[in-house]
């Protein structure tokens, strides 16, 4: 990394950003405030033009979405930039309770001065891909919620149906959109029309069996619940279409970017599919941001919380201070590799035989999987069981 002499901290808010430039923690070069506008961006750049660009490094906290346009503007103008986790910056705050945007900018600049040599050359996560996968994740959560609502309603309107068929097949959802209860099906005619549109999939249910099931149902007449069920089915169908669109967006983005090789590396592990790989890479970004696998584990919030006082030292649960989206996808990946991958299944079974509960055993797999992914991505090597076994005790640290 370059030898920087000017350290610029930026505190970003919705409508403005405060700037503090220092040469060292006790020497402030300038402090200013700018509007979050094109004019404000230009004024800030003009202020920095008084100094050699190669001597300047700029840092700001991750603020959700507010910092992104400013970060993109500065990066496009060839300024060296870094984005800090607010927890990192917090360690440099004063013990005083006084907190202003001006003070926060100064704290960020101070943190940047002390941490300048710990900032990797590639310090960013691709925000566009991350936006796509998080939006997709939100759709999945909404689908799960709507399905829960549908199941609750059907438990009143036609409780016997879920016992004999998949209520989320296209055929059944289409049928329920028109006849949303056992009472409605009892009065229906030409139910064969719905089953004739089935896409060739075998089903134990046909129009005659459905009619018999409805006639013997315990369901009573609930007209308002029927209308609510129809609306829930429409919402589910809409969300499923949205999910397909996000899947297409992810694939299109990855085809036009440089992460296809990383996706191939991750999916070489049996049990990890393309969607999981894309979610993981979107949250992690460039693996070179992490000089050791332990830093990646901490970024995920999977490091143990430790309480130490004198001779007493207690390791508690995982800290959960990192990326919650990443923890979720790693858990799903770990469960999948235990099912589909002999190497990780053997490791999981050994933990279970040692008397470790299910969740802790899966968490052990998460840690092992994360170390494996880290090594594979750093070395650009695909998964091989013999290779994994021979390196299972290796600590993957890179300079």
TrEMBL record:
Origin superkingdom: Bacteria
Classification via InterPro entries: Transp_IS110-like_N (IPR002525), Transpos_IS110 (IPR047650), Transposase_20 (IPR003346)
Domain Transposase IS116/IS110/IS902 C-terminal: 264-349
Coiled-coil intervals, chain numbering: 229-256
One Pfam family of this chain: DEDD_Tnp_IS110
Gene Ontology biological process terms, A to Z: DNA transposition
Stretches assigned to the Transposase IS110-like N-terminal domain: 8-159
Gene Ontology molecular function terms on file: DNA binding; transposase activity
TM stretches of this protein: none
Keywords (A to Z) from UniProt: Coiled coil
Name of the featured protein: IS110 family transposase
Record organism: Fervidobacterium islandicum
């Amino acid at each position: 990394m370059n030898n920087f002499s000017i350290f610029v901290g930026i505190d970003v808010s919705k409508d403005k950003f405060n700037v503090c430039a220092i040469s060292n923690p006790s020497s402030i070069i300038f402090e200013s405030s700018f509007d979050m506008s094109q004019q404000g961006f230009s004024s800030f750049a003009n202020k920095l033009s008084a100094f050699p660009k190669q001597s300047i490094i700029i840092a700001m906290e991750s603020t959700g979405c507010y910092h992104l346009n400013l970060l993109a503007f500065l990066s496009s103008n060839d300024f060296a930039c870094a984005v800090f986790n607010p927890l990192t910056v917090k360690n440099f705050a004063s013990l005083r309770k006084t907190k202003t945007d001006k003070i926060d900018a100064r704290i960020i600049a101070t943190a940047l001065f002390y941490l300048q040599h710990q900032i990797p050359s590639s310090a960013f996560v691709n925000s566009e891909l991350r936006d796509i996968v998080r939006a997709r994740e939100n759709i999945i959560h909404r689908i799960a919620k709507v399905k829960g609502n549908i199941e609750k309603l059907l438990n009143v309107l036609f409780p016997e149906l879920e016992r004999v068929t998949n209520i989320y097949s296209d055929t059944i959802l289409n049928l329920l959109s028109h006849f949303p209860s056992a009472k409605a099906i009892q009065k229906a005619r030409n139910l064969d029309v719905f089953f004739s549109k089935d896409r060739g999939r075998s089903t134990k249910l046909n129009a005659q069996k459905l009619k018999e099931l409805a006639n013997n149902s315990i369901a009573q007449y609930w007209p308002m619940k029927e209308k609510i069920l129809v609306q829930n089915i429409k919402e589910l169908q809409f969300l499923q279409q949205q999910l397909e669109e996000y899947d297409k967006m992810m694939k299109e983005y990855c085809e036009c970017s440089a992460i296809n090789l990383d996706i191939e590396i991750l999916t070489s592990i049996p049990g990890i599919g393309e969607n999981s790989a894309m979610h993981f890479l979107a949250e992690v970004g460039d693996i070179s941001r992490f000089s050791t696998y332990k830093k990646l584990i901490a970024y995920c919030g999977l490091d143990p919380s430790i309480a130490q006082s004198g001779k007493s030292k207690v390791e508690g649960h995982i800290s959960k201070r990192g990326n919650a989206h990443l923890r979720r996808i790693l858990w799903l990946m770990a469960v999948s590799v235990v099912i589909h991958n002999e190497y990780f299944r053997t490791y999981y079974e050994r933990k279970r035989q040692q008397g470790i509960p299910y969740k802790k055993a899966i968490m052990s797999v998460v840690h092992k999987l994360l170390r494996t992914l880290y090594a594979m991505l750093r070395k650009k090597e695909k998964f091989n069981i013999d290779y994994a076994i021979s390196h299972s005790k290796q600590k993957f640290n890179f300079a």
